[in-house]
Design a protein that fits this description.
By secondary structure, the protein is α/β, with parallel strands linked by helices. Helix content is 38%, strand content 28%. The protein starts with a strand and ends with a strand.
């Protein structure tokens, strides 16, 4: 039986999960692939601690020795970050080795450069674990849907935010308490900014959009908003109106241009994504021939990520056995896609105005909305204490983003209306 030698860089949570998977299922893996896989070297700075898990003879403290070892064909980078990780991946590709990574932040930041280099060197750079965790969504888009035109992708791509919104919805908790629960459960980092601010989801949807639409999408150019302003009152009102609030990463073709966004959105309660709870991730895809499809699974954690890394390794092993070194991708990393203009996007909106308890407030709100061509669908006002500011919830018909932003600025500038007022977009079925 043919054997493929692999070098693993990084023995943290995910690295350990992958090593344990291969130790437990290596023979099963080989029987499926017809080729055995040998983890020939493991690079880990703390080799003393790593000896508790792996044989000492496998360990090195410098990734360069793996890159320089001629008989290692595949390098798996699981160190995280964007500096050293870039050096590892870049040097491995330059050395003609295939690379697998779970590093969405690095790929979103410098992926165009690395994918271009991989194409030039005719090697593969695989990253299934970087986007959907345990959901093989890259493989689905690349292979299963290759005969379809993908029109829409809506995803819950950040398990931390979904866990927090679930706790806020089901236990009526404020954001801070729900975040603390997520941290206590190990789903949120000590600094959760990347998750709750939408940055993690923006990295993932930009990569997924590149595969779906055939060109590079820079995550820094997409509309990105997080969940830190969401309140239990907003979730309660949304539910009463037939909606759930979820952090949705979307990539939608509009007039031939991709609209790529991340923001907390109201989605109809009967939509499949509205039912996705806790740390689970889900991706809803609409295609011209397949139609709508939902892909659901664990989005984070050592085992889920290790499973996706092993999936990429299986693909690579198959390519090596077939002597396929094309290193191709269904998108051109050197071609930046022109995104659909933000100001032209159209949604229904849910406005939350925080107002004083005095005459003239409603007139100011309705007047500003009317002046901007926005038609009110329904209004609900709630006071917990008449001496405190009230919550004025307004659902409006479809409007352009430019109109909605202008209306919010003008209403918030009115006397007696807080600058903390905000809106959320409503995604259709």
């Amino acid at each position: 039986m043919e054997r493929v030698k692999v070098g693993l860089v990084g023995l943290g949570t995910v690295g350990r999960g992958f090593y344990e998977l291969m130790s437990r299922n290596g023979s099963h893996f080989a029987s499926k692939m017809g080729t055995s896989v040998e983890i020939a070297r493991i690079a880990e700075i703390d080799t003393a601690a790593a000896q508790a898990l792996v044989p000492r003879e496998l360990l090195v403290d410098d990734y360069r020795s793996i890159v320089e070892q001629q008989d290692i064909k595949v390098v798996i980078e699981l160190v995280g970050g964007t500096d050293v990780a870039y050096e590892i991946i870049q040097s491995a590709i330059e050395a003609g080795k295939h690379v697998i990574t779970a590093n969405k932040a690095l790929l979103a930041l410098r992926g165009a450069e690395l994918f271009k280099l991989a194409r030039e060197k005719q090697v593969y750079l695989k990253f299934e674990a970087a986007v959907g965790g345990g959901i093989p969504i890259i493989k689905i888009v690349r292979e299963s849907l290759v005969g379809n035109r993908i029109d829409k992708i809506l995803g819950i791509l950040n398990g931390t935010s979904n866990y927090i919104l679930t706790r806020m919805s089901e236990q009526q908790l404020p954001f801070a308490e729900a975040l603390q629960q997520a941290q206590d459960a190990g789903f949120a980092e000590a600094d959760p900014t990347l998750d709750v601010g939408g940055g993690d989801a923006s990295h993932k949807i930009s990569l997924l959009a590149a595969f779906a639409f055939g060109g590079w999408v820079d995550y820094r150019n997409i509309l990105c908003e997080g969940i830190t302003t969401v309140t239990p009152g907003e979730i309660e009102f949304a539910a009463s109106a037939g909606f759930a609030i979820k952090l949705i990463a979307s990539a939608i073709l509009i007039d031939g241009k991709p609209s790529v966004t991340v923001f907390p959105a109201l989605i109809p309660a009967r939509h499949p994504l509205a039912l996705v709870r806790d740390e689970v991730n889900a991706v809803f895809v609409e295609c011209d021939y397949l139609g709508p499809a939902l892909f659901l699974g664990r989005g984070a954690g050592a085992n889920a990520t290790a499973s996706s890394v092993a999936s990429d390794l299986g693909d690579l092993v198959q390519s090596l056995v077939l002597h396929d070194r094309r290193g191709g991708y269904p998108f051109d990393p050197s071609r930046a896609l022109e995104l659909y203009p933000e100001k032209e996007m159209e949604y229904r909106y849910f406005f939350h105005f925080i107002t004083a308890n005095r005459p003239g407030i409603w007139a100011a709100v309705t007047g500003c909305l009317a002046d901007n061509g926005i038609n009110i669908e329904s209004v609900h006002q709630k006071w917990e204490d008449p001496s405190e500011p009230s919550d004025l919830y307004v659902l409006v018909d479809e409007a352009r983003e430019e109109q909605a932003r202008k209306a919010l600025r003008e209403v918030s500038a009115e006397s007696g209306i807080s600058e903390q007022s905000r809106f959320y977009r409503i995604l259709p079925l």
